[in-house]
Write a structure and sequence with these properties.
The protein is built from 15 helices and 20 strands. It is of the alpha/beta class. The strands form three sheets. Strands 7-8-6-9-10-11-12-13-14 form a nine-stranded mixed sheet, with helices on both faces. Strands 15-16-20-17-18-19 form a six-stranded mixed sheet, with helices on both faces. Strands 3-2-1-4-5 form a five-stranded parallel sheet.
Length: 457
């Protein structure tokens, strides 16, 4: 059945980039669109007005939602708000922006989720497929929203989509050809009511898959394996990858290579040499393996995959080496916004580490960082709203200092890391207490490093 919104009253909630892209897509498809935004000022929505989009700022009006034929949510808008729940109770369908866009895609979807590593894996998967000669779009939770990719979609397009739990909790028919679950650990407990609710949202990535589809799962993560079993309908083919467990039927590491063991008998097929990987942190090898697994399913050749991996230097704010000051190395992992991500970042270094940790706490167990820090760190500098939480969780395992300002934190971390240590920004928290987002926090870190470098001449 063709999805048609012609002359339908559609309310889009949230004027971030996904909401704006959804509103533009809907109005081009003939809908009567109202964009509702809680902020009283949102200059980025002004180009929508000449297109015929009605813009309501300053709060979600009940009538705008109750009288709609369809409600579309930006990922940042919780679906349990009273105005949305009331409309849903009246029979108004509520879907997410990613679900909306997927209904008009003509190409196949490769969806990637997990608690950490989504952006790196998504970007590298796109690079591998492009290098192999496929027509590819990359976006979703990073980069270009899926709604902005619909016009480019053709039957031979591969849409590589980073999918968050916020997006997955609002799907209905979203159907990936390849669904990737990288890992799972508690996160976003400021939004999801429980760890199980967060897990259930992640597991939904598999629920609409059919025969001929693929479920790619990290064999080293027991919870991810269980979520795949919970979410899948046993129709898709499961393909495992594992750096440590080395699955006998899947993607593994063997003799310095990422190899494919999924063929019928015989020796493993070499795909990509490990020395082609130029990323900080052993945990990022897992992301490379996931991307290579997708490439193998899509029939990308090993030389194309190797060329793509060799040219990939990672993403900004993800284990990004940003230079040295007085022999101290600075690494920007501002994207480590949860405890598990910060843990993997910390474990990437052996000694003389000074970690900058803190921000707006999203849940999880900061005490998991105690032993890795005890083994590797000289000190922790705590920042933001969660300073007291960080101190309470880590004191006794490592020296914890606090900083009133972000520049002060970077300067103090440098002093503590001398003469030859590493300053790691791995906050384990969101940025919204001090910055607009993790990217602004990461840029501020790099600006402080550059300023310190300039002072030293």
């Amino acid at each position: 059945m063709v999805f048609d919104v012609t002359d339908k009253r559609v309310t889009v909630a949230g004027a971030a980039r996904s909401g704006i892209a959804a509103a533009e897509l809907l109005v081009r498809r003939g809908a009567r669109v109202t964009l509702s935004e809680r902020r009283s000022e949102a200059p980025e929505v002004e180009p929508l007005r000449p297109m015929g989009v009605k813009v309501e700022l300053g709060g979600h009006q009940p009538a705008t939602f109750a009288d709609a034929d369809l409600i579309v949510l930006s990922p940042g808008v919780p679906g349990d708000q009273p105005v949305i729940e009331s409309a849903r109770a009246r029979g108004v369908p509520v879907i997410g922006e990613m679900e909306l866009a997927s209904r008009w895609l003509r190409g196949r979807v490769i969806a990637i989720t997990g608690t950490k590593g989504k952006s790196t894996t998504t970007a590298l998967t796109g690079r591998i497929l492009e290098t192999a000669g496929f027509k590819v779009t990359v976006g979703g939770n990073i980069g270009v929203p899926l709604s902005a990719q619909v016009s480019q979609s053709t039957p031979d397009t591969l849409h590589v989509v980073e999918t968050s739990s916020f997006q997955l909790e609002q799907i209905d028919t979203f159907h990936p050809w390849i669904a990737v679950l990288l890992n799972f650990s508690p996160d976003h407990l400021d939004r999801h009511p429980s760890v199980d609710a967060y897990a259930s949202a992640k597991a939904r990535i598999f629920e609409n898959q059919e025969a001929g589809d693929w479920a790619v799962v990290n064999a080293d993560d027991p919870t991810a394996l269980e979520l795949a079993r919970r979410g899948a309908q046993q129709a898709a083919t499961t393909r495992l990858f594992g750096r440590r467990s080395s699955p006998p039927d899947g993607t593994a590491v063997e003799s310095g290579w990422i190899v494919d063991r999924s063929g019928p008998g015989g020796p493993a097929t070499r795909l990509v040499p490990l020395d082609a990987i130029h990323l900080l942190g052993a945990h990022l090898v897992d992301d490379v393996m996931a991307a290579v697994t997708v490439g193998a399913i899509a029939k990308a050749t090993p030389p194309a995959m190797t060329a793509a991996v060799e040219s990939f230097r990672g993403l900004e704010h993800a284990m990004e080496d940003v230079g040295e000051v007085d022999g101290v190395r600075f690494v920007n992992d501002s994207k480590a916004t949860n405890v598990e991500s910060a843990l993997r970042s910390i474990e990437s270094f052996e000694r003389d580490l000074v970690a900058i940790i803190g921000g707006r706490f999203k849940g999880g167990n900061l005490r998991l960082l105690r032993e890795p820090l005890r083994q590797r760190a000289k000190a922790v500098v705590a920042i933001g709203e969660s300073q007291a939480l960080v101190r309470a969780a880590l004191e006794g395992a490592v020296d914890v200092e606090t900083a009133a300002t972000f520049p002060g934190a970077v300067a103090r971390a440098l002093a503590l890391a001398r003469p030859s240590g590493v300053v790691l920004l791995a906050p384990a928290c969101a940025s919204f207490d001090m910055f607009k987002d993790y990217a602004e926090r990461g840029r501020a870190f790099k600006e402080e490093v550059a300023r310190l470098q300039a002072q030293k001449g």
